[in-house]
Specification:
- The longest helix has 11 residues, at 20-30.
- A hairpin with a 5-residue loop joins β2 and β3.
- Strands 1-4 form a two-stranded antiparallel ribbon.
- It is of the alpha+beta class.
- The protein is 32% helix and 16% strand.
- The protein contains three helices and four strands, in the order αααββββ.
- It has one domain (8-66).
- Residues 28-60 are annotated as: Disordered.
- This is Transposase (putative) YhgA-like domain-containing protein.
- Residues 30-41 have a biased composition (Basic and acidic residues).
């Protein structure tokens, strides 16, 4: 019997966002117009999925990317 992920939707999302090229497509198709038009043409940069947030507590993300915004700081 084939192995099936515990959460197929989560596995699909992780596979979809596996590469910066795919993540860029998802961002451009999903974000509101006002945000999307501020994104630079650069591909998003994958970041580690574990980090410490300001609270401080350890946090885990499935996929985390940094996207460069035009004329401003990068966004996560």
């Amino acid at each position: 019997m084939a192995d099936h992920p515990a959460n197929p939707r989560d596995a699909l999302l992780k596979a979809t966002l596996e590469t910066p090229e795919r993540a860029a497509v998802v961002l451009r198709e999903s974000l509101p117009d006002k945000v999307r038009e501020r994104l630079s043409d650069d591909l998003p940069t994958p970041l580690p999925g574990s980090y410490v947030d300001p609270s401080p507590q350890e946090t885990h993300s499935d996929r985390l990317f940094e996207a460069q915004m035009m004329a401003s700081q990068p966004g996560l």
